[in-house]
Amino acid sequence: MGGVDLLDSLIALYRTKIRSRKWYHKIVFHMMDFTLVNAWLLYRRDCKDCGIPKKEVYSLLKFKAEVASCLCNERKVLKKRGRPSHNVDRDLAEKKRRGSASSVPSTPVRQDHTDHWPVW
C-alpha cells in the first residue's frame, strides 16, 4: 500500500462528517483530517524511534480526541472567584523576583536634584 492509499484509508476511518452547503467547509475539514493523520503517522514513527511500547502509543481515534481536547482548552483561563485579595508583601516579592523593567540609574544620580536630559 502506497503513501497516498494509506493516507486515504486512514482519513476514511474517522472522517469529520459535516453537512454544509458551503464547498469550502468540506475542504477545510478534509485538510484538518489530512493534517491530523499526517501528525499521527509522525507521532507513531517518533514513538517507534524512541522505543515506546506499542501499548502506550495512542491510536488514531485517541490521538484525534486528545488534539481536540487540547484545542478546546487552549484559551481557557481559570479566574478566581470572589473579591481579590490585596497582599502587598506577596506582590512586592513577585516584583523583586521579576526585576526592574528598565535599567535604573544609581542612587546618587537619581537623588542629586538635577535634571538629566539626553544630549542630542
UniProtKB/TrEMBL annotation:
Residues 80-120 are annotated as: Disordered. Residues 1-40 form the PiggyBac transposable element-derived protein domain. InterPro entries: PGBD (IPR029526). Residues 100-109 have a biased composition (Polar residues). Residues 110-120 have a biased composition (Basic and acidic residues). Pfam families: DDE_Tnp_1_7. This is PiggyBac transposable element-derived protein domain-containing protein. The lineage of its organism: Eukaryota, Metazoa, Chordata, Craniata, Vertebrata.
